[in-house]
Specification:
By secondary structure, the protein is mainly alpha-helical. Helices cover 43% and strands 6% of the residues. The chain contains five helices and two strands. Strands 1-2 form a two-stranded parallel sheet. Strand 1, helix 2 and strand 2 form a beta-alpha-beta unit. The longest helix is centred in the first third of the chain and has 13 residues. It is globular and about 45 Å long. The two termini are 20 Å apart.
């Protein structure tokens, strides 16, 4: 673990800020599909991880925002709500939680 990360983690702990062990999914931004999702979940280390994604609808409201993530939002929504994804999460014993539940972990 780098000195920066160790010092940052210590500062968070001392301030009582609850956070995850890290985040995954950033490299898949704009290209997430069920196979990539499955591979990430199957190789996930023990701990509490934030999955970074941008699910949503490519609609008139999104047209008002400057972003390269348009079509990919619907694909990510589809991946995250699919039955295959639910099976992968169950098989890998991944528990979905909110930030509210981080306190005390």
């Amino acid at each position: 673990m780098s000195n920066f990360r160790r010092n940052f983690r210590r500062a968070l702990d001392e301030a009582g800020v609850a956070t995850t062990d890290g985040c995954i999914g950033i490299a898949a931004t704009g290209g997430l599909n069920e196979e990539i999702f499955r591979q990430m979940i199957e190789s996930l280390p023990e701990g509490t991880w934030e999955f970074v994604t941008h699910p949503g609808y490519n609609d008139a409201e999104l047209d008002q925002v400057q972003t390269r993530l348009r079509e990919s939002r619907e694909m990510e929504l589809s991946v995250l709500t699919s039955e295959n994804t639910k099976r992968v999460l169950q098989r890998e014993q991944v528990q979905l939680i909110s930030y509210r539940e981080l306190q005390g972990r």
